[in-house]
Amino acid sequence: MKIRQIIWNILSKVYPFILRRIYGMNIGKNVIISYKAQLDKSVNPKGVNIGDNSWVLANSWILAHDYCRGVNGKGKRFDTIIGANCVIGINSIIMPGVKIGDHVIVGSGAVVTKNIESHCVVVGNPAKVIKDNIRVNDKGQIIS
Question: Which residue, 67, 68, 36, 37, is CA-closest to 50?
Fold first, then answer.
């Protein structure tokens, strides 16, 4: 069990570094990204912006292009911005051009299609605010 934990600690620090250096993504300090998360690495990788101390959990999708609407990185660009101290839940989808504020928790399976204000919890398809005036610590836990 300890070996798995050591490997996970190393990979969780190396993966954001690779995304910054190779793909040019704007990823803040102390960001944890699951290696199973899908970030838009193909068409518009520079359109993915993630703030400090945020968590992107397994099977989440963060998109920064939409070919059908002409948002494919060659014409109009829609950057997807995730603020600081956010948690993107398992199997959630963040659509292109969406701005998520600081201290936001996106529930598991949520589909975020519109901008989300800071300090709230969103769930559902499409995502709706169910709780506001929250704060999230650097470990992804609600503290108020």
Answer: 37
